[in-house]
Design a protein that fits this description.
The protein is α/β, with parallel strands linked by helices and about 325 residues long. The protein has 8 helices and 15 strands. It has 2 domains: about 160 residues, NAD(P)-binding Rossmann-like Domain (Rossmann fold); about 130 residues, Dihydrodipicolinate Reductase, domain 2, CATH 3.30.360. Strands 7, 8, 9, 10, 11, 12, 13, 14 and 15 form a 9-stranded mixed beta sheet that branches. Helix 6 packs across helix 8. The longest helix is centred in the middle third of the chain and has 17 residues.
């Protein structure tokens, strides 16, 4: 398969911004632009943003044009378009991008502001034969996938319970871990809101207005407690799962994964499990490329993202 032409709509943090926060100097690949530019299966052809300074930085760094109007992407005929605008603008950007008839759309999470809106977006993409992948990147990261296989094989024994610490909104950051618990433990069943937290959520940024409740969710029979860290204090993204044979700790957003095996009723010293979260966006591009080459199903398709969004809506409904 020839190289896929790729474009990025939205040049904020995940679109390009993390490249300017030191992320691109240590081998990390954390943005759509950097991933498309560094993966041999893609050619980064253009960026889109309403901010002229972001457009300037994009062109300066990647040597590619950046425009303010998504319609201008038509001249570049992209095969893949990443949508990295704020969630409230996803539906409009999705439809503008779909009108260009790319082979695939790679959309940031959550897919939409509501399940009903997301269903309409996916129906439009299906009607045009466009593949939709949603950026729950841990479904593509080797360390997380190895952890999922370890748990599925019974390596940690019967799963007893878990605790997730999240910040910056349930739908935005918290949904990463709702999606991840679905992958590791099974589908969500009972939901119980323990505390509303700050119901207005983050005051600024892409997660503005996104509540941060404490909640108990049962995944495949395993209760998991989601505890919010006030975003004004600091960001925290981690979890601990307790099994009958081992305790799993997933730290610093997944940059460090540890397993403590239980032997004769005692926990041994932590053993690191390998991973590559520093290049998570590269792995997303690799997974999408493999799909478009006919070598693998989508690692995180639109239907999966809607399933996660349904859990979010169930949690937030009484808040």
């Amino acid at each position: 398969m020839s190289r896929l032409k790729a474009a990025v709509v939205g040049l904020g943090n995940i679109g390009m911004g993390y490249d300017y926060a030191g992320a691109g100097t240590n081998g990390d690949v954390l943005t759509h632009a950097h991933a498309f530019a560094s993966h041999p299966g893609y050619e980064l052809v253009a960026g889109v943003d309403t901010d002229p300074e972001r457009r300037r930085l994009f062109s300066e760094r990647y040597g590619r044009p950046a425009c303010a109007d998504p319609a201008d992407l038509a001249a570049h005929r992209p095969d893949v378009i990443a949508i990295a605008v704020p969630t409230a603008a996803h539906a409009a950007a999705f439809r503008h991008a779909a009108a260009l008839r790319p082979r695939a759309l790679l959309c940031e999470k959550p897919l939409a502001v509501a399940v009903s809106e997301g269903e309409g977006m996916l129906a439009e993409a299906r009607a045009q034969g466009i593949a939709v992948m949603v950026n729950y990147m841990r479904r593509c990261e080797p360390g997380t996938l190895a952890l999922a296989a370890h748990i599925a094989s019974g390596g940690a024994g019967s799963m007893r319970s878990g605790v997730v610490w999240y910040s910056k909104g349930l739908a935005h950051n918290g949904s990463h871990f709702i999606d991840l618990m679905r992958l590791l433990l099974g589908e969500a069943g009972e939901v119980q809101v323990l505390a509303k937290g700050w119901a207005e959520g983050s005051a600024e940024g892409p997660s503005a207005g996104d509540p941060e409740p404490d909640v108990r969710v049962v995944f495949g029979g395993t209760p998991v407690y989601f505890l919010a860290v006030p975003h004004q204090d600091y960001g925290l993204n981690a979890f601990e799962l307790v099994g009958s044979k081992a305790v799993i700790r997933y730290l610093d957003g997944g940059r460090r994964i540890e397993r403590r095996e239980a032997v004769a009723g005692r926990l041994l010293k932590p053993q690191a499990m390998p991973g590559d979260m520093g290049r998570y966006q590269w792995h997303v591009c690799e997974a999408l490329h493999r799909h478009l080459a006919g070598a693998a199903p989508l690692a995180s398709d639109g239907d999966n993202a809607l399933a996660t969004l349904r859990v979010v809506e169930r949690i937030l409904a009484p808040i």
